[in-house]
Specification:
This protein is mostly helical. It is built from 13 helices and five strands. The longest helix has 30 residues. 36% of the residues are buried. Bound molecules: adenosine-5'-triphosphate and L-tryptophanamide.
Length: 336
């Protein structure tokens, strides 16, 4: 609890360009949470290092992600929006918690198995201990709730196990976090293969709409989206392409699927796809304008970074000090 509010923590890795999947499935939902909860949103740049990055490009990408959080509407005065790497307590707690995590537990992580199979040339120890750093992120802020997608649930479970193990030995030190299930849990699929999640690391760029795509590109990608040989716009398991487009349309406009279906009675796929593109553009255009405006406000963004780093470090260091004390690490003598 911070000032009588429960704490909520989440973040995204600073890799790749965000897609409307990231926006509709995560960012958009985060916007509604800052009144009720004390929110921390991290730019998870340390996690990104499990994959080799180009330094100049990476520096830009991480900063761009922070600017995008703000452009999407997260208020940096009400939320703490910061870089994970600016708060050294993350790396420190990660080491300490690593000593309370078993190899067997980490070996079971499906994300590790998947990523190791994908990057056979660079199966580094960071990839293996990724969940421990994620546990540190969450536990440092005494987090009550973590809004994440299904794919991250296993990481949240191991976080809870580590925290419970620690508390079992040292008393009530760490808050046990719970997953926060979003009311509108959109799962956006690839436009080219509706059986696959739309993903920022997809090699087929036509499968994803990126948050920075211009209107022409969005129209072109929607027009090319895979549908089926019927002509009826209807939500059904047998029509994954059309259903995905309906999901995108309805989530962008805040309509139910039934309302969305009604909009397209007797309408052909061509016009339907145009309407989907327009719905996406109506969401992305103001965000892009705000993003471009903020990119010119270097001093403002710098001041936000400084302020929020300090706020994050204050809370994180409080927990870190407690953990170190419980472990019996010697305290620094005070200067006379
Ligand atoms: P990568 O392709 O690099 O693994 P990703 O695009 O799958 O990344 P993540 O960085 O793993 O995205 O996830 C960031 C957040 O966006 C998570 O909360 C995740 O649940 C959400 N998210 C990602 N893709 C989608 C999608 N297609 N639909 C809905 N939510 C999504
Ligand atoms: N692993 C997450 C990103 C992430 C995260 C976190 C999410 C790193 N640390 C702490 C929530 C809480 C991902 O890949 N989406």
């Amino acid at each position: 609890m911070i000032d009588d509010k429960k704490v909520l923590y989440s973040g995204m890795q600073a890799t790749g360009n965000l897609t409307i999947g990231n926006y509709l499935g995560a960012l958009k939902n985060w916007l509604s949470l800052n009144e009720e909860y004390e929110c921390f949103w991290g730019v998870m740049d340390l996690h990104s290092l499990t994959v080799r990055q180009q330094p100049a490009d990476f520096r830009k990408k991480a900063r761009n992600l922070l600017v995008l959080y703000i452009a999407a509407g997260l208020d940096p005065k009400k939320n703490c929006i910061y870089f994970q790497s600016h708060v050294s307590a993350h790396a420190e707690l990660s080491w300490l918690l690593g000593c309370f995590t078993y190899m067997g537990e980490l070996n079971r992580m499906t994300q590790f198995k998947e990523k190791a199979a994908k990057h056979t040339d660079n199966i580094n120890a960071g990839l293996f201990t990724y969940p421990v750093l994620m546990a540190a992120d969450i536990l440092l802020y005494q987090t009550d709730f973590v809004p994440v997608g299904k794919d991250q649930k296993q990481h949240l479970e191991i976080t809870r196990d580590i925290a419970e193990r620690f508390n079992g030995i040292y008393g009530d030190v760490l808050t046990i976090p719970e997953p926060y299930i979003m009311k509108a849990g959109a799962k956006i699929m690839s436009l080219q293969d509706p059986a696959k999640k739309m993903s920022k690391s997809d090699e087929n760029i036509n499968g994803s709409i990126y948050l920075m795509d211009d209107p022409d590109t969005i129209v072109r990608k929607c027009k090319r989206a895979v549908t089926d040989s019927e002509s009826e716009v209807r939500y059904s398991e047998e029509k994954p392409g059309v259903s995905n487009l309906l999901e995108i349309y309805s989530t962008c406009l805040g309509k139910s699927i039934e309302e969305a279906e009604k909009d397209f009675v007797g309408v052909g796929y061509g016009d339907f796809k145009m309407a989907v593109a327009e719905a996406v553009i109506s969401i992305l255009k103001p965000m892009q304008e705000e993003y471009n405006r903020l990119q010119k406000e270097k001093d403002y963004i710098d001041s936000i970074i400084l302020e929020n780093d300090e706020k994050a470090a204050y809370f994180a260091n409080k927990t870190l000090r407690k953990v170190k004390k419980k472990l019996g690490l010697t305290e620094k003598p005070r200067k006379a």
